């Protein structure tokens, strides 16, 4: 098999699986590309962000009924009733997406500058540190949650802002946003559902911004399409099972373990 085809399939499969686990798909795919495939950190970050568009399509297909219902509420939306129970989710998604853009765009610019200045080992170690932090955040919310069913403005701004910061490799988007909702009193299933609905516009936006600012990552357009399609198909096939798995497995330990390995590995590269 052509090595570029194999690489496209591998990263597409990894994205299709890792996106639904609170272990930072971007961070782990970037680690794989830099450590195993010897891809430059800049290209690795670009490709990992680009692939989010594929799993956004997976989430869009999986939640198609919910998305259609939310879109159907738009003609009846009124600012004075924005957070009424029957419209609160639509308002939450709109406000949180705006907050993601406000925080995420500057974070993306800072990330590009950071990646261009860090040596490979230092970059790997930084991802490791962020994975460890992500893991301990998730550990802190284990067993938390409540019965709140209606997200409010504070939820939207908080979760949207945190999702913007999750553009940093090593910060789990789903883990961070779901943890915030749990701390705010929402139950586990509702938190992950809102988190994944929110991922759709954010991931499509991240893929678009990456492509517009940097072009298609440094592989051929055909191979980029293969990777994107693979992530979409695998993501759709695995989302249901992996979301159930997340409710039963302590993935904070996985984050901390992978992060520790990355820190050690990055230190070895620097030495």
TrEMBL record:
Catalytic activity: di-trans,octa-cis-undecaprenyl diphosphate + H2O = di-trans,octa-cis-undecaprenyl phosphate + phosphate + H(+)
Stored InterPro entries: UppP
Any one Pfam family match given in the protein's UniProt record, by short name: BacA
Tagged with keyword Secreted: no
EC number from the UniProt entry: 3.6.1.27
Membrane spanning residue stretches: 5-23, 43-63, 90-111, 117-137, 194-212, 218-239, 251-270
Keyword Transmembrane helix carried by entry: yes
Membrane topology: Multi-pass membrane protein
Top enzyme category: hydrolase
One annotated Gene Ontology cellular component of this protein: plasma membrane
Subcellular location: Cell membrane
Highest rank taxon of the organism: Archaea
One Gene Ontology term of the molecular function aspect: undecaprenyl-diphosphatase activity
Keywords from the named record: Cell membrane, Hydrolase, Membrane, Transmembrane, Transmembrane helix
Annotated family: Belongs to the UppP family.
PANTHER family membership: UNDECAPRENYL-DIPHOSPHATASE
Functional summary from the UniProt entry: Catalyzes the dephosphorylation of undecaprenyl diphosphate (UPP).
Protein name, entry field: Undecaprenyl-diphosphatase
Organism: Halococcus thailandensis JCM 13552
